[in-house]
Design brief:
The chain is an alpha/beta fold and 236 residues long. It is 37% helix and 14% strand. The chain has one domain: TIM Barrel. It has 9 helices and 8 strands. It has an 8-stranded mixed sheet. The longest helix has 15 residues. It is globular and about 50 Å long. The model has no long low-confidence stretch (mean pLDDT 95).
């Protein structure tokens, strides 16, 4: 498997390329799709977390061989680039290598990426996932950083001239998402909004989608509705 690859399917909505840095994720989000995609035992996926073998060396080789430059590279799909409680030196080295070759990064985390803000500039994106409010997050994402801490780091990134974005996917609490859109728009450059997939939900997705669009437009936010949510909104 290539270290850096072009996302396909729904993942292609995120960037030109992607890199998955770690073998697992300790955040234990109940809705995580990665163990199923990777054909991994869920407990092993959450417990055995480390950088993929020789990832920085292999990344450099592929960048040189394929002359990948001037691209936006998403970090990450099947893991978090900043797993709580683990050494994230590999993430820093991956970012340094990508930027050395003239690429930019689009980070998405439920951890704390502030240690690497010195590597990022106006061509990079720092993003966090927000699905719900704190009480629900304690149950749904028990080992991830608190939603408020994620947003604080993102506000800090914005103050440093880094582009910021929020992934509202999967949405667990529509009211909390709408509150976040309206309350945090002043330090958010872009939002991507999607529904809950792979798990049952009683959320009225069409209604939520319309309300989310209205909130984004009211706040002047650049927004993108994921295809799965758009399909619900387009139903007669």
């Amino acid at each position: 498997m290539n270290t850096i690859y072009k996302p396909k399917g729904a993942a292609a909505e995120y960037g030109d390329y992607a890199v998955n840095i770690y073998t697992g994720c300790p955040h234990r989000c109940y809705y995580c799709f990665a163990p199923q995609v990777l054909h991994r035992d869920r407990e092993a996926f959450h417990s055995c977390v480390g950088p993929r073998k020789d990832i920085v060396t292999e990344l450099r080789r592929q960048l040189e061989r394929e002359q990948i430059t001037g691209k936006l590279v998403h970090l990450c799909f099947t893991c978090d680039p900043y797993p709580i409680g683990h050494d994230t030196t590999a993430t820093r080295e991956v970012i340094q290598t990508l930027k050395e070759f003239g690429n930019h990064v689009q980070i998405l985390t439920k951890g704390d990426g502030s240690r690497d803000f010195d590597l990022l500039d106006g061509g990079d994106w720092y993003g966090v996932t927000i699905s719900c409010d704190v009480p629900m997050a304690n149950r749904a994402e028990p080992c991830a950083a608190r939603p408020a801490d994620r947003l604080y780091n993102m506000e800090t990134a914005k103050c440093k001239g880094i582009n910021t974005w929020v992934s509202f996917e999967p949405v667990l609490d529509p009211a909390a998402v709408l509150d976040c859109i309206k309350g945090c728009a002043y330090f958010i450059d872009r939002v991507k909004i999607g529904k809950m997939n792979y798990h049952p939900s009683d959320i009225d997705w069409a209604k939520f989608g319309r309300e989310a669009v209205a909130a984004c437009e009211e706040m002047g936010l650049d927004y993108y509705i994921k295809d799965s949510l758009r399909a619900e909104m387009d139903k007669p």
